[in-house]
Write a structure and sequence with these properties.
- The structure is a homodimer.
- By secondary structure, chain A is an alpha/beta fold.
- Chain A folds into three domains: about 1-45, 434 Repressor (Amino-terminal Domain) (Orthogonal Bundle); about 60-155 and about 285-310, Response regulator (Rossmann fold), CATH 3.40.50.2300; about 155-280 and about 315-340, Rossmann fold (3-Layer(aba) Sandwich).
- Chain A contains 14 helices and twelve strands.
- In chain A, the strands form two sheets. Chain A has a six-stranded parallel beta sheet with strand order 2-1-3-4-5-11, sandwiched between helices.
- Chain A is elongated and about 90 Å long.
- The interface between A and B is large, with 58 and 58 residues.
- Strand 2 of chain A pairs antiparallel with strand 2 of chain B, so a sheet runs across the interface.
- Chain A binds a DNA duplex (16 and 16 nucleotides) through helix 2 and helix 4.
Chain lengths: ~350, ~350
DNA sequence: CTGAAAGCGCTTACAG
DNA sequence: CTGAAAGCGCTTACAG
């Protein structure tokens, strides 16, 4: 910057003001400065700027990677958030595997980031308190049990559940199963509510993030209700197990059993046979909205906490069909046996 | 730091040296300083440190997100790199959608990052030259046409191709098809080589990242060789189209047609029916190795450029089977028609 | 409209 | 083994 000032024949402070635009500069001066910056290929030093102004224009993305159980939508959410931040002149810094404890306290204390985005928020998430204590502004993607004072964006599970259940009930399904991931209890709660409002029965089980877990879950679902005709899943890693277990028992999807996923990205939904019907919010949207919330806070917005829920869209693909008729059900086991003997 | 020094009764320089360990400090002094830091909950300011030392301990991850065509393995690679960097005391900063041009030049000039990792490297990637010119140390994940002077890690496509072709030829397949993504030409080249070494025929087509593109690609593959019995794909987004187009023509997978993917993560491979046989390197490994390479350079290593290729593993699932016998082939069309009329 | 100067919180020669 | 001081490259009151 000193070089620029010299070349333009002005003081460094004038260069700085020209750069920030925080005070009027005469046209000719401004032009000389701009020319000098171009000639020298000057870019302001981020550290000097950060040190003095106490603003880094960096935000942290807290991303608890329990390897293996990564939701495939996470990448889209991250990229959405990052693109958006970048457009607004901010950088996104990845903090993976940072849990509450010294790590986070240290990181937050370094003054490196102006704020944080917290992904994968659990119901009782100790990271939240650490951030509050550290005085780091943040917004959550997902939300904890009591988000009271904190901005967040999340999937609107109530709306998603109504969409999912609505579609299935319309198709004549009355006995539904739910497959959760054992971590986020919101989908199940929402589904229970939606089912009871729609007058449908719902049984629910959780499963880990594996094919085998899905197989086991299917068995448990059938034990809970041998006559269920549709399954709603919030556990993309267990779904293949469910589908195969159903196939093994001769239940064809979608003729004998409908299945639908919440929060599975489109290109993944296309991989199953039949392709998976989904209710799915735009993960990129959720990420972008969280960035917006946070930036508003960083710019001094003191409005009460905002909580933005994003509804999903129903994407009909091929894994749901009208419920088998009572007649089908009656003869079901015979038909299934026949198929199995082929 | 001034507070710490006061509380410990020493000078700030002593505190700084105690922190960095770059010169001997008496035990009692060190203890007083450490106690003071604890009492005050002190964490060094990252900007002051960066400004003075010219090292930020931040590395950029250049991640060109052409939305929609994100490889699902990318997330694992990113998380692998980030975890690893974090363990080594570095931060990973996401630069999505940053292409060659002013953006990159600016970012590189800010002095914010000590180095960069470049993902999604194309054969002639203008970002490379920009980084070289800016004097930012970097390593590539993937590599361009002429990586001469630059460190990189990548999938070992030659080895992967040998594995894939080897398995198929062992199973009696002699007429193979390849489905590329139209961006990375290496898989096709490697496959051609592997096929010719194994004495198998290979026809190749490219497709965009969509189901429809996959359908079209299957048609073109059959035009190129109506008798192919196996397909190797490096295009996870088009694979569903291939599978469905095959199904529409009555070709059962794997009995009539084997299919195999390169670079598809395990939990995605489980989603198809039958589950997809893959040849797949550990994306997390590739990411970690790139971090290691870069950090070595940052620490002054001047060894000649290193180029690390990671071989894939063959994961047999269910999408490949022995080639149909000549007899099967002969009666194939009749059999297919029969199935279609059912 | 512009300049001279203090200071952000560290690191690191220089001196003892 | 320890301290006093310069300086990294900016921003921003203060002064004109």
């Amino acid at each position: 910057m000193a070089d620029v000032a010299r070349l333009a024949g002005v003081s460094v402070s004038t260069v700085s003001y020209a750069l920030s635009g925080t005070r009027p500069i005469s046209l000719s001066t401004r032009e000389r400065i701009e020319q000098a910056m171009l000639d020298l290929g000057y870019t302001p030093n981020a550290f000097a700027r950060g040190l003095k102004s106490k603003r880094s224009r960096i935000i942290a993305l807290l991303f608890p990677a329990r390897a293996g159980s990564l939701r495939l939508n996470a990448l889209e959410c991250i990229v959405g958030a990052s693109d958006h931040a970048q457009q607004r002149g901010y950088h996104l810094m990845l903090w993976t595997g940072v849990e509450a404890g010294d790590d986070l306290t240290q990181l937050a204390g370094q003054g490196l980031v102006d704020g944080a985005l917290v992904m994968g928020v659990r119901l009782h998430d100790p990271r939240i308190q650490v951030l509050v204590d550290a005085g780091v502004p943040f917004a959550m993607i997902g939300h904890d049990a009591d988000p009271g004072e904190i901005d967040f964006t999340d999937t609107d599970f109530e709306q998603s559940a109504r969409l999912a259940v609505g579609h299935l009930v319309e198709q004549g399904h009355q006995r539904l199963g739910f497959l959760g991931d054992g971590e986020n209890p919101r989908p199940e709660k929402a589904l229970r509510r939606a089912a009871s409002m729609a007058g449908a029965d719902l049984v629910a089980v959780d499963a880990g993030a594996s094919v085998d877990a899905g197989r086991g879950a299917f068995t448990r679902l059938l034990q809970a209700d041998p006559n269920l005709t549709a399954i709603i899943a919030f556990n993309e890693h267990a779904v293949p197990g469910v589908m195969r277990a159903a196939g093994d028992l001769g239940r064809r999807i979608p003729q004998d059993l409908s299945i639908m996923c919440i929060d599975m990205p489109p290109h993944v939904a296309e991989l199953t046979t039949p392709p998976m019907t989904t209710v799915e919010p735009s993960a990129a949207h959720v990420g972008r909205a969280a960035v917006d919330m946070l930036l508003r806070r960083l710019n001094g917005d003191t409005a009460p906490p905002r909580q933005l829920l994003f509804g999903g869209e129903l994407n009909l693909r091929g894994s749901c069909a009208p419920a088998p008729s009572a007649d089908d059900l009656h003869h079901g086991s015979t038909a299934r046996q026949r198929r199995h003997q082929e």
